[in-house]
């Protein structure tokens, strides 16, 4: 079982909806990540938080808004999404971003469908 | 731009066969190479390689990195149906603070093991 917990596992939303994806880890990791994965494609990095501060934003559209309330939690707020945003959203954590990602622990992902 | 290429893209074998998966990369300031196995959802960590020529081994899986020739291989011996998955290679590069924590994934190799 993964030690990174993501909720919800599945989400269907309309283009005008506002929803959030949540991620939680209790391994004491100080770096947390959001990845987006389309079918049969590798994960693509979206955001990196290190010590609760946003350190990498891979030019992600503003309709995706990350938030790190504390070292254990990572949220991804969604608003006015497009159908092409439908994908598996993976959260990951690692001990310390400054030391390199090393071993990333992935959650099971939230499967998002935008209608 | 950092680049990671895996081959073959897909592979079908029978139980008991040995397979070799390849990963070549072009990155600036290489830091580490990681292998992940992805079944239905979350990628799970297999190996991290940072030094050339060192073999990492876990049961039937082993991996080696050649930093001079810029590639890595993942070997699986005596394959089982449970080895069926997508195998992802990822490379971490450092280029100042903004690139720490960024993994570039290859496209993955889809391995199917038939009974």
Describe this structure in words.
The complex is a heterodimer of chains A (115) and B (115). By secondary structure, chain A is an all-beta fold. In chain A, 0% of the residues lie in helices and 56% in strands. Chain A has strands at residues 4-7, 10-13, 18-25, 31-37, 44-50, 53-57, 64-70, 73-79, 87-94, 105-106, 110-114. In chain A, strands 2, 4, 5, 6, 9, 10 and 11 form a seven-stranded mixed beta sheet that branches. In chain A, strands 1-3-8-7 form a four-stranded antiparallel beta sheet, with no helix packed on it. The model of chain A has no long low-confidence stretch (mean pLDDT 91). With 115 residues, chain B is an all-beta fold. Helix content of chain B is 0%, strand content 59%. Chain B has strands at residues 3-7, 10-14, 19-26, 30-38, 43-49, 55-58, 61-66, 71-76, 85-93, 103-105, 109-114. In chain B, the strands form two sheets. In chain B, strands 2, 4, 5, 9, 10 and 11 form a six-stranded mixed beta sheet that branches. A five-stranded antiparallel beta sheet of chain B has the order 1-3-8-7-6, with no helix packed on it. The radius of gyration of chain B is 14 Å and the shape is globular. The N and C termini of chain B lie far apart (41 Å). The model of chain B has no long low-confidence stretch (mean pLDDT 90). The interface between A and B is medium-sized, with 28 and 24 residues.
Q: In percent, how much strand structure appears in the residues of chain A? A: over 45%
Largest sheet of chain A: 7 strands, mixed
Radius of gyration of chain B: 14 Å
End-to-end C-alpha gap of chain A: 31 Å
Number of helices of chain A: 0
Q: Secondary-structure element sequence of chain B? A: EEEEEEEEEEE
Computed Rg of chain A: 13 Å
Query: Which residues of chain B sit in consecutive blocks of at least 5 with pLDDT less than 50?
Result: none
The helix-strand sequence of chain A is EEEEEEEEEEE
Instruction: Indicate the percent of residues in helices of chain B.
Output: under 10%
Helix content of chain A: under 10%
In terms of structural class, how would the helical and strand content of chain A be classed? mainly beta
From the N-terminal CA to the C-terminal CA of chain B, the straight-line distance is 41 Å
Largest sheet of chain B: 6 strands, mixed
How would you describe the oligomerization state of the chains in this entry?
heterodimer
């Amino acid at each position: 079982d993964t030690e990174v917990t993501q909720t919800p596992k599945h989400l269907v939303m309309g283009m005008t909806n506002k929803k959030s994806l949540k991620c939680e880890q209790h391994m004491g990791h100080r770096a947390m990540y959001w990845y987006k994965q389309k079918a049969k494609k590798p994960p693509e990095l979206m955001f990196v938080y290190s010590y609760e501060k946003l350190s990498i934003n891979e030019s992600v559209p503003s309709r995706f808004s990350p938030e790190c309330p504390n070292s254990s939690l990572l949220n991804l707020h969604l608003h006015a999404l497009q159908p092409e945003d439908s994908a598996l959203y993976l959260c990951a954590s690692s001990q310390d971003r400054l030391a390199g990602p090393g071993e990333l622990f992935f959650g099971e992902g939230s499967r998002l469908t935008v209608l | 731009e950092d680049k990671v290429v895996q081959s073959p893209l897909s592979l079908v074998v029978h139980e008991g066969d040995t397979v070799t998966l390849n990963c070549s990369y072009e990155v600036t300031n290489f830091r580490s190479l990681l292998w992940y196995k992805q079944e239905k959802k979350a990628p799970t960590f297999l190996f991290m390689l940072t030094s050339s020529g060192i073999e990492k081994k876990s049961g039937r899986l082993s991996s080696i990195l050649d930093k001079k020739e810029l590639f890595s291989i993942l070997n699986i011996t005596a394959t089982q149906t449970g080895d069926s998955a997508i195998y992802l290679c990822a490379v971490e590069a450092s280029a100042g603070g903004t690139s720490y924590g960024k993994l570039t994934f290859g496209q993955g190799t889809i391995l199917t093991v038939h009974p």
